[in-house]
Design brief:
single chain, alpha/beta, Gyrase A, domain 2, Four Helix Bundle (Hemerythrin (Met), subunit A), Rossmann fold, flat, binds guanosine-5'-diphosphate, binds magnesium ion
């Protein structure tokens, strides 16, 4: 998909202005490109920060000096990509960085595709596919917990766990093959009892990884939480309180919020896309009708609905309709600072026929109950115990393949149990090889080009 023979270049820092901006060059001509744009005859010493001037080629329109920079050369294979790399740290101006980029291209480098530096690191065996995906996750992390999970994967914790499982399977397969290859020896290279002990151990190891995968997936992918309720109950006030900014308009008139307003926030380490909606009631006009339609639509696809009720006004049909919907929800009973129009949920049933599954009394005006609401929300998003260790597996691609490997090992164990003492080597081999194939697909030892293309397309240019 990418041509690995080219020397590539890209701006590695994000668009915009900053103290420093970095242009990165990688490939066999990295040094030659650097010496052309830096105008220095002498070669850069590896891993030494060298002060220099970038100069554009004299024939081009923007000829002449561009910026004072610090260039660092990394000699292959001890670099991010495993190739010769030069990083040019200039002043963080988009104009300057663009000029340096163009100068490098004029000097023989090609503009890198998204993720191409990391792809080269993968191709050159610097990192496996799990680690390459972790790089993208780390760059894209919104919460510290997401960053931590990605960092652990980049450090190779998952890679190591998979390698240990794979090594055990490899060893078993070798012994089973020996038993098949030398049937006349009159004995098995491995006893059925031993095989089952080993397979049990492998199944447990896979189970440990997959066991936390549900939480892991939530950490990586985040959740969508929708604030719903009839008009004027305090939805936008709640939304702002959770976002920590006056993002949505709060007003005493009903029907202020007419479109969806959304914001990404960190809740208990989970990246949450929080959505404020229009109050659900019989709409007064076409715009409000569309707002209500969007509100209902958003609530129907949400992972969790925060259903807001107003305790200072009697429950009405709008509330009842919302309460009747079966969404996964947390009921927020607001305006507890005002005289109550119905009983507290703690002391009794507020109205006949209404079931309150999970409700909390708050006053968004005084702040009463808000801390507990946040805590309950975090627990609902992440499961019972949000502060446990960082999950090892977070990526649904890895989870699916690990489950596949676990299933194959399970089938092997069943075959072994069904045959009693008579060892079904061929069946076992087929299952164990399938398990290994799934693990190799996780780490990228065995991967289609389509999948690679798909994975690296998520990266930004320069990574
Ligand atoms: N007394 C009292 N008023 C509140 C409380 N929360 C919100 N309000 C007020 O209720 C009105 C409607 O709030 P808003 O957030 O716009 O409701 P929305 O229509 O559901 O989005 C505003 O005047 C808020 O200041 C509360 O806890 N107590
Ligand atoms: Mg509103």
């Amino acid at each position: 998909m990418f041509s690995p023979a080219d020397t590539i270049v890209a701006i590695a820092t994000p668009p915009g202005r900053g103290g420093i901006g970095v242009v990165r060059v990688s490939g066999r001509d990295a040094q030659a490109v650097a010496s052309r744009i830096l105008g220095t005859a002498q070669r850069l010493a590896p891993r030494v920060a060298t002060f220099a001037r970038v100069v554009a080629a004299s024939d081009g329109a923007g000829a002449g000096p561009i910026d004072q920079v610090v260039a660092t050369f990394f000699l292959a294979p001890a670099s991010y990509t495993g190739e010769d790399v030069v990083e040019v740290a200039a002043h963080g101006s988009p104009v300057v960085l663009e000029s340096i980029l163009r100068a490098a291209m004029a000097a023989g480098a090609r503009l890198a595709e998204p993720g191409e530096f990391t792809f080269r690191a993968f191709l050159n065996g610097r990192i496996d596919l799990v680690q390459a995906e972790a790089v993208a996750d780390l760059v894209n992390a919104v919460t510290p917990l997401q960053a931590r999970a990605a960092f652990d994967q980049l450090e190779g914790t998952l890679t190591g766990a998979i390698a240990r499982i794979d090594a055990a399977l490899f060893d078993l397969i070798a012994r089973l093959e020996a038993s098949i290859d030398f049937p006349d020896e009159g004995y098995h290279f491995v006893a059925p009892g031993d095989i089952d002990v080993e397979l049990h151990r492998v199944a447990v190891d896979i189970g440990v990884l997959v066991g936390d995968a549900g939480r892991g997936r939530i950490v990586r992918e985040g959740r969508q939480v929708v604030v719903a309720g009839k008009p004027n109950v305090g939805k936008s006030t709640l939304f702002n309180a959770l976002v920590g900014a006056e993002r949505a308009i709060v007003a005493p008139q009903a029907g202020t919020t007419r479109d969806l307003v959304s914001e990404t926030v960190d809740m208990a380490g989970v990246r949450v896309c929080l959505v404020d909606t229009a109050g659900v009631r019989d709409p007064n006009d076409a715009i409000e009708r569309e707002g209500v339609r969007r509100a209902v639509g958003a609530a129907s696809i949400a992972d969790l609905v925060l259903l807001v009720l107003d305790r200072s006004r009697p429950l009405d049909d709008d509330d009842r309709r919302l309460l009747a919907s079966g969404a996964d929800r947390l009921i927020v009973v607001n305006k507890c600072d005002l005289p109550a129009a119905w009983n507290s949920l703690a002391t009794g049933r507020p109205a006949a026929g209404l079931a309150f599954d999970d409700a909390i009394d708050v006053s968004l005006r005084t702040g009463f109950g808000v801390a507990e609401l946040k805590q309950r929300l975090g627990a609902r998003l992440l499961g019972a115990d949000p502060l446990r260790d960082v999950p090892a597996v977070t990526n649904v691609r890895h989870i699916d393949l690990l489950v596949k490997a676990g299933d194959a090992v399970g089938r092997a164990r069943t075959a072994l149990a069904d045959r009693g003492g008579d060892m079904p080597e061929e069946f076992l081999l087929a299952d164990l090889q399938e398990a290994r194939a799934a693990l190799e697909e996780v780490t990228g030892k065995r991967t289609s080009e389509d999948l690679l293309r798909h994975i690296f397309a998520r990266f930004c240019v320069g990574k």
